Amino acid sequence: MRNLVIAGNWKMNGSQTFAQEMREALDNAEFSERITTVVFPPFLAIHTMLGSDKFAVGAQNCYTEQSGAYTGEVSPELIADAGCQYVLVGHSERRTLLGETDQVVAKKVKLAVSAGLTPVLCVGETLDERESGNFKDVVEQQVVAGLKELSGDEVKQVVVAYEPVWAIGTGKTASADQAQEVHAHIRSVLNSAFDGAGDAISILYGGSVKSENAAELLGCADIDGGLIGGASLNSKEFITICRIAADSH
Ligand SMILES: O=C(CO)COP(=O)(O)O
After folding, report:
1. Residue 191 pLDDT exceeds 90
2. Residue 208: is its pLDDT beyond 90?
3. Neighbour tally for 42: CB within 10 Å
4. How many whole angstroms from 208 Cα to the centroid of ligand 1?
5. Residue 172 has what pLDDT?
6. pLDDT for 23
7. CB of 229 closer than 6 angstroms to any ligand 1 atom
8. pLDDT tens digits, residue range 106-159?
9. What is the CA radius of gyration of the chain?
10. Does 227 sit in the ligand 1 pocket, CB within 6 Å?
11. Is position 198 annotated in a ligand binding site?
C-alpha cells in the first residue's frame, strides 16, 4: 500500500508570524490517518513547524555535500539533525532559475537518503516539451537520472513529484487524464528500471492544485497525493485539500 501524501511547499513565502499561525492551524486540524501531511517552509521557519504530531516537516533544498567549507549551504545531515524528515530535490524552479542539473539532483537525492531523509524528487516538462510531444521521454529521463546513484532498497525510500512546469503557479492545471497518463508512465519506468520499485513509491502531482480541482486529480489511480504551492499558504485551503485527498482516494 503506497502512502497518500499531501505536502505544502511554501517556497520563499511567509514570515515568523505566518509560520506561528500556520502551526496553530495545522495543530488544531483533524487529519485523516490515511494521509501523511508534510510542510516545506523556508529554512528560517522550519524550527517553528518542527515537533507536531499532526504533520512532518521538510526542507526545500539541500547541498551536495554533508559538511565542510560551503558558506551559506545546508547539508542533508544538518536538515535531518534539525528534526526534518523530508527534503525537496530538483524542483523546477531550482532547475530553471539556479541551473540545477540531473547530475546535481542525483547527488542530492543520494546524500538525502544517506542522511535518513526522504527525498521528494521533482520532475516535469516545460511547455515547449509538452507541445513537442516528447514530454514522457523528458520526465522518464529526469526520473532515471535522479535516482541513478541509489541502490535497489534506497530507491523505495524516495517520493516522486510530477510537476509540469507549465502548470506551476500559472493557474493552469494538467487535466486528470494528462496527469494520470504521466503518473502511470513514471510508475512503469520505476518498475522496469528499478526492479518493481514503482509499486512502492508514492508519486505526487503538483501544479496549481487547489480545493476545486483536488478531488478530480487526487482520485486518479496513479496519483498518490499532491505537492501544493500557492494553496498551501492558506491553512484552511490546505486542510481542505488534505480532507479531499482522504475522501477521494
Ligand atoms: O511548485 C509547486 C509545488 O512545489 C506547485 O506550485 P503551485 O501549486 O503554486 O502551482
Report:
1. yes
2. yes
3. 16
4. 6
5. 84
6. 98
7. yes
8. 999 999 999 999 999 999 999 999 999 999 999 999 999 999 999 999 999 999
9. 17
10. yes
11. no
Is 11 annotated as belonging to a binding site? Answer: yes
Q: What is the pTM of this model?
A: 0.98
Instruction: Please give the distance of CA 160 from its chain centroid, rounded to a whole number.
Output: 7
In the prediction, which pLDDT does 112 show? 98
**77: confidence class by pLDDT, cuts 50, 70, 90:** very high
Report the greatest alpha carbon distance in the chain: 48
Q: Which of 86, 228, 233 to mutate to test the pocket of ligand 1 (most atoms within 8 A of CB)?
A: 228
Question: Which residues belong to the active site?
Answer: 91, 163
Question: φ and ψ at 139, to 5 degrees?
Answer: -65, -40
Residue nearest to atom 2 of ligand 1 (CA): 229
Q: 68 alpha carbon to ligand 1 midpoint, in Å? A: 32
- Name which CATH class applies to 4-234+243-247: alpha beta
Alpha-carbon gap, residue 172 to 154, rounded angstroms: 34
Determine if residue 9 is labeled as part of a ligand binding site.
yes
Average pLDDT of the chain, as a whole number: 97
CA distance 135 to 147: 19
The dihedral built from the CA positions of residue 47, 233, 118 and 245, taken in this order, carries a sign that is positive
As a whole number of angstroms, the distance between CA 53 and CA 199 comes to 27
Check pocket membership of 58 for ligand 1, CB cut-off 6 A. no
Burial of 131 (0-12, 13-18, 19+ CB in 10 A): exposed
For residue 233, the CA-to-ligand 1 centroid distance in Å is: 11
| Bridge partners of residue 118, in order along the sequence | 86
Identity of the residue numbered 89: V
